[in-house]
Amino acid sequence: MRDVGERGVAWPFWARAETLRGEQGLTIQELCSRSGVRRQTYAELKRTTRRPQRYIVSAVADTLGMDATEAMALAGLMPTDSDMVRRAILSAHDLDEAQKQSLLILLDGYDTAARKRRGMPPPGLYRPAPAPIARIAS
Q: May I ask the CATH class of domain 11-117?
């Protein structure tokens, strides 16, 4: 990655991650260890001219509990189709919380399978497990 001084393409994402890291009382080493992102790679987020790889942004965001769509936007990345579907599910007024949770679990499964086929780490690897949901009556 090429250094451009103080602020790079993903600086807004890095700044938000730093705020959340501080609020959660994590050191940079702890964040990097939990997310699986190298310390140097994390530091480069604030000053590189190149867009970061999605899995790096996803790993840091998941570790800090940051919304994936917000994280991608802050990092200068366009949302993927599944990001747009996720946002639509979350904003749907005709679905109750259990239905939304079920759809998000299915979408996570789809994303994991798609990433595995491409040889990439699964999304949400460090995301806490969702709370159990009630079975939806058919």
A: mainly alpha
Give the burial class of 35: count Cβ atoms within 10 A of its Cβ; 0-12 exposed, 13-18 middle, 19 or more buried.
Answer: buried
User: pLDDT tens digit string along 19-64?
Assistant: 999 999 999 999 999 999 999 999 999 888 888 998 899 999 999 9
* 21 φ/ψ sector (left φ>0, alpha ψ -120 to 50, else beta): alpha
Rounded Cα distance between 63 and 76, Å, is: 19
Where do the structural domains in the chain lie, given as residue ranges? Answer: 11-117
Question: What angle (nearest 5°) sits at the alpha carbon of residue 38, between those of residues 48 and 26?
Answer: 100
> What is the residue whose two structure tokens read 């990001």?
83
pLDDT of residue 121: 58
Between helices 28-35 and 54-64, what is the axis angle to 10°?
120
